[in-house]
Amino acid sequence: MAVFDEQQLRALPLFASLSAEQCAQLLDRHLESTHGPDQVFVMQQDWGESLFLLRSGMAKVRTTTVDGDEVVMSVLGEGDVFGEMAALDGAARSADVVALTPVSVVKLRAAPFAALLEKDAGFALALARLEAARLRDLNQRFAIQSGDATTRLLDALAYLARRSGAANDPQAVIPALAQRELGLLAGLARETASRTLSKLRTRGTVEEVDGGLRIADLQPLIKRGLLPARSKGG
Fold first, then answer.
1. What is the per-residue pLDDT across 97-119, written as a single tens digit (0 to 9) for each?
2. Which spans in the chain are helix H?
3. CB–CB of 167/231 below 8 Å?
């Protein structure tokens, strides 16, 4: 994979308002790394002296309850920035980041990032929009935790699809993931997630494509209020 450069950075929505020179400042002394599935590459309680950009692949942001149960806070896809809050306030990181698939990661220094936020209102507004979108996703996911297993799994699959594709498409192909991961994201036991997924396959709602999964029929999601009636792109 070629070295990540200013042009690729500016192609991402968060950095679109920046000049080539500003992007070069952000990429000064950046580091690139690759990680395999299940590898923890950002650890909870680490100090936030840098932020990260997911160049390819998918990862999960997780924490644990006082009882030791894993909770998936969000899923990251290609082009996502993460670790920015700890980089800004200097506090310890609040969650682990774990690869779900093979990933390529760009590590950026926090100081140039914070300096540009103070100087560039457009950049600061883009970050605020990013955080607002993440909060909306989190609110929806927690709002359906009292729903039935089918609703929760469909919502998790649509969320994964949107994170998998560049077009925010709930019908994008989801990479092959362990059913345990699907269950964690949906808030279901692995066995319940497996049974529910089998039912969705039998009904033709979900299909297997290239070793992964794809939501073939959006109507069950629309009926449950998980997608607006006239939207296929989330």
1. 999 999 999 999 999 999 999 99
2. 6-10, 20-26, 84-89, 110-119, 121-143, 149-164, 179-186, 190-203, 219-223
3. no
The residues, ordered by sequence, that sit 6+ positions from 194 with a Cβ below 8 Å of its Cβ are 179, 183
Q: 164-186: per-residue pLDDT in tens? A: 876 789 999 999 998 899 999 99
Residue whose C-alpha is closest to residue 24's, from 44, 39, 4: 4
Q: Is 96 helix (H, G, I), strand (E, B) or coil?
A: strand
100 and 10 in a common domain: yes
Q: φ and ψ at 114, to 5 degrees? A: -65, -40
Q: Give the structural domain span for 219.
A: 147-223
Q: Is the dihedral of CA 159, 163, 168, 174 positive or negative?
A: negative
Q: Closest Cα to residue 17, out of 123, 118, 131?
A: 123
- Count of structural domains, the chain: 2
CATH, residue 201? 1.10.10.10
Q: Which of 95, 117, 140 is the last residue of a domain?
A: 140
